Amino acid sequence: MPQQFYQQGLRVPYIAPWTHEVPVIGPVKRHRGRGGEGLGYRDEDPRADRWQGALWMRVPIARGKGRARLGSVHALRQRQCMKYLRCQVCGHETFGRTDERYLWLVAGSEPIREGEESSSPPVHESCAAEAVRDCPHLRKSHVAALVDAPLFWGVAGLVYDPETLEPLPSDNDGLTHVSFADPQLRWTVAAHAVVTLHDCTAIDLDDLVAAAA
Q: pTM for the complete prediction?
């Protein structure tokens, strides 16, 4: 079971990185694999550096060391939460609801749409209530939905120019969403796994938390 850590009296989300977990990219080179030419690390380890055909940002594992960098996301723990449907706050699995659905919580005011792309892992009801209470972005504005089927879609990462091997600009918090079917995936250093959300039912989080109490 994942250990829980606290900072200034507040629980640190499982996917939050710590100051001893600074991500590293590179050095990169042109790489030729089974699918053709793309981006690779000069000292690449295919078992550790690639997942689902994508090259991944390297990040140390030192959870609880230093101070939590709230508002940022640890690439490996985010990917694990998506892969195993673990709660982004506590890190425990979110299986077990009687309706066999999953709770998704995101910042913003627009309802979660059918097929929407998301790099936010699921949450438990109690953890969602805690996040809304403690996170300024969620406290300001948030929406929630029960989801039947989160499906792997692609990654959010840094897309590199195939000619210059320099990262291209992005308007989405510095990261670009790239599907697994997109040829750009071969020129991307992934930071987050992205799923699409299907059979979504918008819900009032307060009502859901009250019903679960």
A: 0.92
